[in-house]
Amino acid sequence: MQRTTRTVLTAAIALCPAMAFAQPKAATYITDEEVKTVNSQPGIDRTIKVVDIGTEHLAVGIIHRGPSGAAGRGAAAGRAAAAPADPCGEQAGTPPANGVPGGIAHDSQTEGYYIVSGGGTLITGGRIVNGRKSAPDAEVTKVLNGPSCSGTMAGDLVRKQVKTGDIIIIPAGVPHGWTDITDHVDYLSFRPSDHVLEAGYVHPAIKK
């Protein structure tokens, strides 16, 4: 009997690490108040939280884009000036005809958008021409959307007018950018990735 008990205890102790690893992760709650607080902060792309969900990291953010123009035209608006000179995408001496500036493609980061207010035209597909890589130590790489290539979008582009309530899924590597934003567009972004973004990040505005 004692031998049996010891055998069972030994097996239980050996299984403890595996059992602990198999435990489900705790749920993460993001309140409406937290979303609104982060959305009231300056900037365009604001990550709310990055969560380790086991096999992946999941980032949730709130993005605000104003009217189309220098400050809000493309997904890469406001980042090009900080990007290093390292080229990416297709390099061409002559800008492509009908190309759309301000596009971005994320190397490993899929994105899902849920439009919460406003709208505009989302352009997806094609390829990035005369692009520049994101800086490896920049916030865009650590907590926003990982290594990316920003430049002019060209080729077989899809232009889709989106509005409040619409959902868009953009796989990693697919160029995308915005135009024809009359007033604004605000959207929640959901970014699952193979541990690309830093888990544990919480926006400073709601960090306790």
Brief descriptors of the model:
208 residues; alpha+beta; five-stranded antiparallel beta sheet; 3 helices; 38% strand
Residues in helices, as a percent range: 10-25%
Low-confidence stretches: 4-24, 70-84
Q: Approximately what portion of the residues adopt beta-strand conformation?
A: 35-45%
- Strand order, biggest sheet? 1-2-10-5-8
Give the biggest beta sheet: 5 strands, antiparallel
Order of helices and strands: HHEEEEEEHEEEE
How many beta-strand runs? Answer: 10
The end-to-end span amounts to 53 Å
The structural class is alpha+beta
> Radius of gyration, rounded?
21 Å
User: How confident is the prediction overall: mean pLDDT?
Assistant: 84
Number of helices: 3
Q: Which geometry do the CA atoms define? A: globular
Structure, explained:
By secondary structure, this protein is α+β, with helices and mostly antiparallel strands. Helices cover 17% and strands 38% of the residues. The chain has helices at residues 2-22, 32-39, 139-144; strands at residues 45-52, 57-65, 87-88, 100-106, 111-118, 120-133, 148-162, 167-170, 176-179, 185-193. The protein has a 5-stranded antiparallel sheet with strand order 1-2-10-5-8. Strands 3, 4, 6, 7 and 9 form a 5-stranded antiparallel sheet that branches. Strand 1 and strand 2 (57-65) form a beta hairpin.
